[in-house]
């Protein structure tokens, strides 16, 4: 008899079956990243909770060489490739191996501007607080709030804070090609000079102002200028949806990630799902590796299919096959 693996059954009758829901996939376990100390939880979710079972994720020589070129030359790494080839994961792998802390992440959307990455000044919030204090005190407030309480450095601004060599941050600028056409050119000066100014602090009477940072901490900004001491390791990713200006390309180390080979894929599956997944999902893995050139299916789609079908063992074989096909849909064409 086939057991019912479904949580939602579509019967229209309330039940408490949600309590039977198994633990989430390791890469979707957000509780781990919030409870583990330091960057361990974030690394586990991105790189695989069982990565200690794998000696190496077997990066290709050109990947290692490009990362080292970016480190030696203090230049951003521009990583291109199909969705799901590990472009974002590369930033986390470097941070984890070199002990550079939690990765700062700037996800680019169509409305993203350079200002979003550098800092945000909450002028309206400051004005409201001053007016509230004035109303409560019946006149001028006894002490005006510091302007630094209303300035928050963005991920790029936080990455450019002055720290010694060996303590620089890793910044992931994810999907740069999704942004406004002006953004790559707007980044040029900041990436070249490693500094920027905050006009609101340049006008402030205090020479040193403590502001909030993107990672939840605080930092002191002197004379309204943020200038890096050690250039951060910056990874710019792109799905290749558009070309970038030559001025940006010459300031970056280029790296194109190809789909994983069998050895790399086996290491990834083991790191995320354990060694048993290689045998249990051998058929799906083989189909994934045999896909046609130009057929885009992301690595995490395979992980999803392996995880889900392994937990739907009670389903009929035809049902499991249908689930796998749904999860492994091609990304290079509309459905």
Automatic annotation (TrEMBL):
All residue ranges annotated as the AAA+ ATPase domain in the record: 73-263
Stretch forming the signal peptide: none
Short name of one Pfam family: AAA_5
Source organism of the structure: Streptomyces smaragdinus
GO molecular function, one term: ATP binding
Database matches in SMART domains: AAA
Superkingdom classification of source: Bacteria
Region annotated Disordered, chain positions: 14-40
Name of the protein in its database record: AAA+ ATPase domain-containing protein
Matches recorded under InterPro entries: AAA+_ATPase, ATPase_dyneun-rel_AAA, P-loop_NTPase
């Amino acid at each position: 008899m086939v057991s019912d693996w479904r949580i939602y059954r579509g019967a229209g009758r309330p039940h408490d079956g949600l309590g039977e829901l198994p633990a989430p996939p390791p890469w979707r376990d957000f509780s781990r990243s919030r409870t583990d100390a330091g960057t361990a939880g974030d690394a586990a979710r991105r790189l695989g909770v069982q990565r200690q079972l794998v000696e190496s994720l077997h990066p290709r020589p050109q990947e290692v060489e490009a990362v080292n070129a970016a480190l030696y030359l203090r230049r951003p790494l521009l990583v291109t490739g199909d969705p799901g080839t590990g472009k974002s994961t590369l930033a986390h792998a470097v941070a984890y191996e070199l002990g550079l802390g939690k990765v700062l992440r700037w996800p680019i959307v169509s409305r993203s501007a350079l200002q979003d990455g550098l800092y945000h000044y909450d002028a309206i919030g400051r004005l409201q607080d001053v007016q509230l204090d004035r109303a409560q005190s019946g006149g001028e407030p006894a002490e005006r709030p510091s302007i630094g309480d209303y300035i928050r450095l963005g991920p790029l601004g936080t990455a450019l804070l002055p720290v010694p060599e060996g303590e620089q941050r890793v910044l992931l600028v994810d999907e740069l090609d999704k942004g406004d056409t002006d953004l790559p050119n707007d980044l040029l000066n900041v990436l070249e000079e490693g500094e920027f100014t905050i006009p609101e602090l340049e006008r402030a009477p205090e020479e040193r102002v403590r502001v909030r940072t993107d990672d939840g901490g605080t930092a002191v900004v002197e004379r309204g200028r943020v200038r890096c001491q050690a250039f951060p390791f910056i990874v710019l990713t792109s799905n290749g949806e558009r070309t970038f200006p030559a001025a940006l390309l010459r300031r970056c180390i280029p790296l194109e990630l190809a789909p994983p080979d069998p050895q790399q894929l086996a290491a990834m599956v083991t790191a995320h799902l354990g060694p048993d997944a290689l045998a249990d999902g051998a058929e799906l893995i083989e189909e994934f590796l045999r896909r046609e050139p130009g057929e885009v299916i992301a690595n995490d789609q395979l992980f999803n299919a392996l995880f889900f079908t392994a937990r739907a063992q009670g389903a009929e074989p035809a049902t499991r096959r249908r689930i796998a096909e749904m999860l492994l849909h091609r990304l290079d064409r509309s459905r």
